[in-house]
Amino acid sequence: MNDITMRLQADHLILEALKEDISSEDVSTNAVMKEAVPGEVDLICKEDGVIAGLDVFRRVFELLDETVTAEFYVRDGDEVKKGGLLGKVRGDIRVLLSGERTALNYLQRMSGIATYTRSVAKLLAGSRTKLLDTRKTTPNMRIFEKYAVRVGGGYNHRYNLSDGVLLKDNHIGAAGSVAQAVKMAREYAPFVRKIEVEVENLDMVREAVEAGADIIMLDNMQEDEMRDALAIIGGRAQTECSGNVTKENIERLTGLGVDYISSGALTHSASILDISMKNLHAVV
Fold first, then answer.
1. How far is CA 82 from its chain centroid?
2. Exposed end of the chain (fewer CB within 10 Å): N or C?
3. Residue 26 is a catalytic residue
């Protein structure tokens, strides 16, 4: 995550996370540390995985004290091993203690998503199908979680509702039909926007193709039905399949030849990667 993105899109979110954890003061730290003492602490990985979010981790401490420094021995996207030393953080011990939990929360969550995404993306290796995330993200964590998906080898679907046109079942219900929804979107949306339509059966597929949808999402269809749908589309639109896709069941979709497979599980079901700050000590 580059410095501009961090300052414009992430800093205020990190500050809110810090305020959540320190509403007035860090009572525990202030009780044992009466004044500033320079210190150093190790960043240790406690299980195998893919690291993501090192810049965010460092930024937590910088927002508390700009003199804090962090030296990392790995980069985002690296595969790390249990027991590995990932880096060291140096600064006022009070800052290291107060920022520890928030910094680790970001790093653990982002690394967990990158780790899970990498494991799913490997199942698509050798195919032309790209793995996409969704908007099923933790509130106020989207920028971090979608970044972690990219680090893990996935791709981002639209970032938010302002980012693209996706006509889902309720949009179609509100418009009255697939054709009418596409027509209204075409008239309203800027010409640079592609129009994607979610379909649930072959009749909707035919209607979406005839209406000129740019992307057709096959949602919760059986495998045979998806093959029939792809034959109907015949290359006239890009294709995506979705619906409860996980690492355990994605292989059944790999031979279909769709352009994209989207999975909310990348962000809503990934476990954290266990990472700790250990061996805190004063330095001269």
1. 23
2. C
3. no
